[in-house]
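Hi L.,

As promised, MurR/RpiR family transcriptional regulator:
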Amino acid sequence: MSYCDQIKKRFIRLSRGQRKVAQFVIDNPNVIATHIASDVGKLIGVSESTVIRFCYAMELSGFSELQEKIKQDLMGAGETKKDRPHPLISKKQVNLLIDVMNRDVTSILNTMNIIGEEQFEHAVKLMHESSSLFVLGFRQSSPSASFLTCTLSNYRKHVKQIQHDVESIVQQISHMDENSLLFVIALEHLQEDTITISKLAKDKNVKVIAITHSSISPLRDYADILFTVGTQKTASAETITAAHSLIHALVEGMLAQNRKHYINFQKTNANIESNFPYLEKAQYI
């Protein structure tokens, strides 16, 4: 029996705070194995003493012994797959995989802990109520903007991504009004053109939601809501991972406002596309 299985057996006997720790240990064993108790407490949203009390409740001497138990679990899981290492995967590569994915998890958890519930709910409401939605993200932020645009387009109409050329920018801004919402994604050093577009949109009473890597971004002057993902010291790839997780949560929040309506739109779109199979072939002609 793994140590996580032992935690599950004792779960009901733990206090509310200790259950939070227990669930985190079960869901994120790699984080437990590589972080100290105080960091784990911050990620969960409990005090370090609660983490330690959880260890005592599990009849352990402290957090170090919990780490050893979890590391044994992780090593055992690898050994059960094969008694010898895979010929194409070295130990160094496995450690790199765990390290990179742990950093992604940490970036997402950090983002989750700094986003307020009211801020999130306000953003979801704006997404649901806006008649048209524009997405802005240039250079390094362009893939994230495309991800948001494609995801939203699956569930609602009037979603446009602003392309980085003068004609597209002027055209899309001319279509904005007080019932529009502009999503600005700026995950790198902020460019002047992004600020200019945000200002022009705000001058037309457009609602603006910004996703950025800095809480002191100049976009704060124009954004109704500003989400900060990762931290300024976080690597860009990890910031993008956290941004995509936030985007996923925002879209799910929008769907929850009227799930039947959005799912019906998705089904209708899928039926229309299925009636035009030649469109896919045309792309390769």
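Residues 91-114 form the longest helix (24 residues).

Thanks again for sending the construct details.

K.
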